Amino acid sequence: MSRTFSSVMVTGGAGFIGSNFIRYLLGRPDFQGMVVNYDVLTYAGNPLSLADVAQQYGDRYVFVKADICDGAAVRDTIRAHGVDCIVHFAAESHVDRSIVAPDEFIRTNIMGTYTLLQAARELGVAHFHHVSTDEVFGSLGPTGFFTEETPYAPNSPYSASKAASDHLVRAYHQTYGLPTTHSNCSNNYGPYHFPEKLIPLMILNALEGKPLPVYGNGLNIRDWLYVEDHCSAIWTIVQNAAYGSSYNVGGRNELTNIAVVTKICELIDRKVEPLASGAPRSSLITYVKDRPGHDLRYAIDCSKLERDLGWKPAHDWESGFEETVDWYLANPQWVEQVRSGAYKQWLETNYASRG
Ligand code: NAD
Ligand code: TDX
């Protein structure tokens, strides 16, 4: 079985993973349809991430600036563009922001997902894929992995709102027979990643000789996946997975945060001029106050996806980190654009209070 679609609506397509997914999808020979990028452009959305795609693909690519909580706009878009598949990325995605101000997470992640599901059901959209996170499963100790059977135990307002959205997707399949699939993925990294998240923040601060703020003791563990591998997993699931099924997606690349930051420092020391002091960039590492409720370890068992659908990641973390550093070095104009006044203010407030 391999499904085909004529019009895929990508919510949150101007964000980090959504923009990578649109680029991936339009570049695939097995997809000849159109892509509707539905995004309200919050601080995290950047149309510049897709400027070349808009030029290259002409009328196969449409951008609609609208909110997923606006049911009328969602319905108009589905009707106007004959949408037969929704791939739903749009979300508030930053754990630290959810701790400071949860409201927008509840609205977008829960009410927004509900609004999309309801519209998809009413208008008979053929497929709804929901993109979610491993953070819904909570925190692991030193051993074990999250599987698709792991009970939900979210610890932050972000992960709780994503858990609620996962449950709504499940309910719309079970109750109304909506043709859904859903995936829970580990931490992504790669091009177009907004520099509030660990890897791009460390790359940019290290380049500028600024402190590298590591939360707590730096021993928290994340399972890193190159963003293009997440995109290939999603497309594999959308085309082939049974309705109502869920899949875990991960890279089998478990690293402590301090190991990630140290590796980034080494890569940058190798690629650009040394700091004025002559010290290695790892000297910029600064331990700061921990994130409240900070999950110790995430690790994904993705054997179901490998076994059922034959998916495999194409990147290991060493090649992926290097490609990512190279991308940031090659794209200073993108970096300048995302560093708007509002973002600067977030950095000042968040890190000032961590001391
Ligand atoms: P992001 O913050 O970079 O992008 C989110 C996008 O959604 C932005 O373009 C933003 O403008 C848009 N958006 C936000 N609220 C909206 C609204 N109300 N209406 C329309 N558009 C809205 O996020 P990301 O890192 O690309 O994550 C995408 C999805 O993948 C999220 O659902 C996230 O939970 C999930 N996910 C992310 C990761 C990761 O490591 N980044 C890992 C697993 C799952
Ligand atoms: O400055 C920092 N210093 C630091 O030590 C930042 C921003 C983060 N960290 C730590 C916290 C985490 O242990 O690094 C780790 C990664 O942090 P984030 O990049 O904020 O990601 P995380 O909280 O793990 O969540 C990410 O992966 C899962 C995405 O933001 C989520 O959207 C996704 O669901």
Structure explained in plain terms:
- The protein has a domain at 7-189 and 227-250 and 298-314 and 343-354: NAD(P)-binding Rossmann-like Domain (Rossmann fold, 3-Layer(aba) Sandwich).
- Helices cover 44% and strands 15% of the residues.
- The protein has 13 helices and 13 strands.
- It has helices spanning 16-26, 51-57, 71-80, 95-100, 103-123, 157-176, 198-208, 227-240, 257-271, 303-309, 317-330, 332-338, 341-352; strands at 7-11, 34-38, 61-64, 85-88, 127-133, 180-185, 188-189, 212-215, 221-223, 225-226, 245-249, 254-256, 285-288.
- The strands form 4 sheets. A 7-stranded parallel sheet has the order 3-2-1-4-5-6-11, sandwiched between helices. Strands 7-10 form a two-stranded parallel ribbon.
- The model has no long low-confidence stretch (mean pLDDT 96).
- Bound molecules: nicotinamide-adenine-dinucleotide (NAD) and thymidine-5'-diphospho-beta-D-xylose (TDX).
- Nicotinamide-adenine-dinucleotide is lined by residues 11-12, 14-18, 39-42, 44-45, 67-69, 89-93, 108, 112, 131-133, 162, 185, 187-188, 194.
